[in-house]
Each structure stands twice: as C-alpha cells, then as structure tokens.
Amino acid sequence: MNLHFYKYQGTGNDFVIMDNRDGRYDALTNQQVHDLCHRRFGIGADGLMLLNTQPGYDFGMKYYNADGNESSMCGNGGRCLVAFARKMGLRQDTLRFLAVDGPHEASFKGDDWVNLKMQDVDWVEQGNLYYYLNTGSPHFVKYVDDVQAIDVFADGRQIRYNDRFAQEGTNVNFVQATDNGIFVRTYERGVEDETYSCGTGVTAAALTSAGTEEKTYRIPVQTLGGGLEVLFTKTGERSYRDIWLCGPATLVFEGNVTI
Question: Which residue ranges are tagged as binding site for substrate?
C-alpha cells in the first residue's frame, strides 16, 4: 500500500495525518498504524489520524494511538486535523467535525493557531491528592510542588497500571501552579510514555485549577512542547461549559511511504 502522509505537531504532540475522504486508507490495519508511528522503524508520532467524509459535518476524525489502537478524543490531534483540513481546502471560518466523543467546532487565529471547542464536563471526582475526570479522554490529575522533578514515566505508569485503571487505562497529569497559570506534564496511555503535550490533559488540568467562583476563566498552560490556553465557564461546583482548547498546530513535513 502506498501512502501519502502529512506530519503535524501541536506543542510537540505529533501526528501522522492522511486524507481519507475517498476511503483509500480504510483498509489500514492496527499493526500498520503502529508501524507508521514507531519512532525507530516508522515515521514517528504520538498518533495517527484520518480525515474522513462525515455526512452533516465538514469532516470526520478517526484517531489511533501510537500503539495502533483506535482511541478516545485527542485535543491536540483535533487541532492538528483542523489545520490539515484547512490545508486540504476547507476554508470556512468555522469548521464542524465529528470525533469519537461527539461533535466539535473549531476556528482560527492567524496561520497556525487553532481554537477547538471541547465537550462540556459535568462530573469531576475529587480525592485528597487528585482529581479524575473525562474531557473526551479519561484523566487523572495530580498537583505537585516541583513538576520538573517528577519522573513522569515511572510515576505515571504506576498510576496508569494500578488496580483501578489497569484494564481501561487512564492518562496521568502532573500539574504545578505558576505565577499566571499552570505547568502540565502528561503520561499518555496508548503511547505509554510522557508526551510533550496532551490537549485533553491540559484541558482537564485547567478545569481543576479554576477557583470556586462561577465565571469565565482563561488559563495559560505551559507544556514541554510550548504554550496553550484553555478558556471555559464554570457553571457549578463541578460543572464546566463552553470549553475551548487553543494553541498552535503546524505542518512539519509531508511525504510518501510504502507499507
């Protein structure tokens, strides 16, 4: 099979993307996805996405983790796919697409900044030392004093594979408050390692960082791969609406590969 692919990244979260609106890549197998994402023997990426035709929407999003399995929503992936859709000729000011967690809309600021609307959140589990919530993907959020000192791979893996989460998995976010926002580092299931950034994880961390007042918040977020912003309105003790994940999404390169 001959593939024409594009490599995109959003704050270091990188993806292989292909235009599948004619269905030419429908036969792609999980093993082939894994091989394409492999950082030694493939193109190398945190995940792979297909731009699909979706009736009633501008396009559909199909997302695979680097392990080759279809996965839940990827926020940075969604932003990169929106940027790719624009490159493929979808030039509307606002794009609507369907992902595994439901409909999304997106807008642009400049050439490479994408604002992605996320799903509302109505439930947050809060423990003594953590939060657990779903922002399109499940996230365990733990606040720490020195996020740079954390062994994200070891500590994140321990939580991801504990008795509660081992079967379904969870992403694990370590968060430190900064002078004007938060710094987030994430262990991602499906990648099974730390990634430079995680959109749904950044969103989960930003929601939990809000104060008690019910109002609109804008949270600057720093990741290893760069800066993002999360905008949302807190409407209850554990209820959030109008959530937007905002940040850069850029083309790295394109090419052809035979598998």
Answer: 13, 65, 75-76, 171, 188-189, 199-200
